[in-house]
C-alpha cells in the first residue's frame, strides 16, 4: 500500500517539476538571447517526446512564440530581399512543429501560424495539415513535399515559394500571392484558388481537378 502511495507521490512531483519547466520555458522564449531560446526549444521537444500528455501544450507554446516574435509585415513595409531567412530560433521552433508526431494532436485543435513573417523558412516535408496560415508571409519559403491538406492559406504571400510535390488538397488559397511559386507536381485537388495571383507560377504536372480557379490571375 505504502509503495503505491510513494509511486503516486513521485509521479505528482514529476508532473509539478515538468509544469514548472514549461512555465520557465514560456517566460524565457523570446525574452532572453537566441542561444537561450535554442536550448529551451530543444528541451521542449524532448519533453513532448517523453511526455505525450504535454505534447499539445508545447506545440501551443512554440506557435505562440513564432506569432509573437515574427509578426506579419505588410508587403509595402518589406524593404529586405525576398530570400530573407527567418531568425535562427524561429526556424528551430518551426522545425519542431513541422516534425512533431501529428497523431498526438487533439482532434479539435488547429496549428495557428497566421499573421506571421516566415520568409525563407525551411519547411521541407513539413506536416502542416489543416494549419491556419491566413495572411502569413512565406515568400521564398521551402515547402517542398509539405503536407498542407485542408490548410487555410488565404491572403498569404507565397511569392517564389517552393511547393514542389506539396499536398495542397482542399487547401484554401483564396487571394493568395503565388507569383513565381514552384507548384510542379503539387496536389491542388479541390483547392480554392479564387482570386489567387499565379503570375509566373510553375504548374507542370500539378493536379488541378476540382480546383476553384475563378478569377485566378495567371498573367498581368
Topology diagram in text:
Layout (H helix, E strand, L loop, with lengths): L1 H27 L5 H17 L4 H15 L18 H11 L122
Helix pairs in contact: 1-2, 2-3, 2-4, 3-4
Protein described:
It contains four helices and no strands. With 220 residues, it is an all-alpha fold. The longest helix has 27 residues, at 2-28. Helix content is 32%, strand content 0%.
Features:
single chain, disordered N terminus, globular, 4 helices, mainly alpha, 220 residues
Helical content, roughly?
25-40%
User: Number of helical runs?
Assistant: 4
Strand content: under 5%
Sum up the overall morphology in one term: globular
Structure classification: mainly alpha
- Biggest sheet architecture: none
Task: Tell me the total number of β-strands.
Answer: 0
Work out the oligomeric state of the chains in this entry: single chain
Report the radius of gyration as a whole number of Å: 20 Å
Gap from first CA to last CA: 77 Å
Q: Which ranges are low-confidence, i.e. pLDDT below 50, for 5 or more consecutive residues?
A: 1-13
Give the topology string: H per helix, E per strand: HHHH
Q: Could you tell me the mean pLDDT?
A: 90
What does this entry show, briefly?
The chain has four helices and no strands.
